[in-house]
Amino acid sequence: MTGKKVGVIGGGASGMMAAITAAGCGAEVTIMESGDRLGRKILSTGNGKCNLGNRLLNAEQYNGADRSYIRRCLERFGTEESVRFFREIGLLTKEKNGYLYPLSGQAAAVLDALRFEVMARDIRVLYGFRAEEIHKSQGDRKGFFVKGDGRKEFFDRVILAAGGRAAPQTGSDGSGYELAKRLGHRILPVVPALTYLTCREDFWKGIAGVRGDAEISLLEENGAVIDKERGELQITDRGISGIPVFQLSRTAAYLLQKRAEIPVRIDLMPDMTEEELWAYLQTRRASCLEQAKERTAEEFFTGLVNKKLMTLFLKQAGSKGNQSLSLVAEQQMKKILRFCKDFRVTVTGTGNFQNAQTCAGGVDTSQITENMESKLVRELYFSGEVMDVDGRCGGYNLQWAWTSGYLAGRAAAGCSAIDPSAKEKTSFR
Questions:
Q1: Cβ-proximal residues to 61 (8 Å cutoff; 6+ apart), any chain
Q2: DSSP letter at 202?
Q3: Which of these, 277, 266, 347, 252, lies nearest to 312 by C-alpha position?
Q4: Coil, strand, or helix at residue 290?
Q5: Most-buried pick from 147, 162, 294, 298 (CB within 10 A)?
């Protein structure tokens, strides 16, 4: 038993993990939660199924901090440790294409397992406690005073796990950044991440609801590719969404801080080159023109892309769906081909923090040790989204919550450092 009094600011995923770990090391732990319940954000993850990790875990799935820093942290507490931790607290997991979910398929099961463990370890929870100040004590009693909502608490050590700014309705209001800043920490620009992109064009309502495999590329003004992703594109009445768009949204958000718009190229037929598609269209056109019954342009192009999109492309190419195929000029055919392979749109914004799954930016990790301790303020620790670490879709952000929470909780409680070569011997109880 370490006997340390540890205060955890924030009762989200990483805060609960930090608290449970510190209590497991013998610390007397208090969670200060601004809301009226713990872990509300967990319920919305993975479309309510909670994608809590990934078997394909590696540092390349993260942005923000130096990836060598992230890699070393993940080596000490990664996917296998997370699975084992949840198993020990009563939650079994299942895998789908590397993605890890609770066996029940319910995000509520993850939250309940954590909540029950918080209660079982006799962790004190202060609800409605919004931390407003953290002061290092100056007297003989070394530690921290945390003030908020007319209350003041004293702790030997403090873990700041107040979240970022994404989904503020769940309690992530960005207050953790201000607390860290007042203690001298550098806050890197915070933007929404894993969210949709809004576009300038006026045709979106007519093609809203379309989904399909596509490669999406963010472009420089000269056409050079900045970043690209492939996956299921989802078209909305304001622009583009879907996992590949979510993966690009972080980069887009930072670019939009410097310029008003970003050109985007959408390849709706990524498995065919332009040459292959043109050869196919020429062969098919010749075959159709030899048939007794002549085809219309709409009939000819059926099957290439979604009908809503093809109607738009025919219009933009100067053709009509009911136009005879024989009257469709070669130049119009080439325009339609280019729309299929190089559909250009203009991004002018991203979803706001309310609609983002996470955020990029936050407390600079160059000022944080691999034990999650501040290099500026001894015995102050960080965990979760408040740090400048953000992952791709696929359970990586929750994995960072488990990793950083575990490392912070262990260090704050005064447990010995983890030896990666012997970590499989660790018991979480």
A1: 54, 391, 392, 394, 396
A2: S
A3: 266
A4: helix
A5: 162
How far, in Å, CA of 268 to CA of 323, rounded? 24
Structure token digits, residue 54: 């990934």
The rounded distance, in Å, linking the Cα atoms of 239 and 197 is: 6
CA dihedral 230, 235, 238, 242 (to 10 degrees): -40
Count of beta carbons in the 10 Å neighbourhood of residue 169: 12
CB 364 within 8 A of CB 187: yes
**Which of left, alpha, beta for 418 (phi over 0: left; psi -120 to 50: alpha)?**
beta
Provide the 3-class DSSP secondary structure of residue 338.
helix
DSSP character at residue 256: T
Separation between Cα atoms, residue 23 and residue 123, nearest integer Å: 7
Place of tokens 């919004």: 130
Residue ranges of domains in the chain = 5-192+357-425, 196-351
Phi and psi at residue 63, in whole multiples of 5°?
A: -125, 175
Q: Closest Cα partner for 157 from 374, 367, 356?
A: 374
Q: 3-class SS at 331?
A: helix
CB 396 within 8 A of CB 285: no
- Mean pLDDT per 10-residue interval, the chain, length 429 residues: 87 98 97 96 89 96 94 97 97 96 96 98 97 88 92 96 93 94 97 97 97 97 96 98 98 96 98 95 89 84 92 91 87 92 97 95 98 97 98 97 98 81 57
Distances (CA, A) of 22 to 1, 3, 5, 29, 381: 10, 10, 10, 7, 12
CATH architecture, domain 5-192+357-425 = 3-Layer(bba) Sandwich (3.50)
Q: Is-same-fold flag (5-192+357-425; 196-351)?
A: no
Give me the half-sphere count of Cα atoms (radius 13 Å) on the Cβ side of residue 44: 14
* DSSP-assigned beta bridge partners for residue 164: none
Token code pair at residue 251 = 């980069």
d(CA 24, CA 1): 9
CA distance 3 to 394: 38
CA distance between the termini of the chain: 13
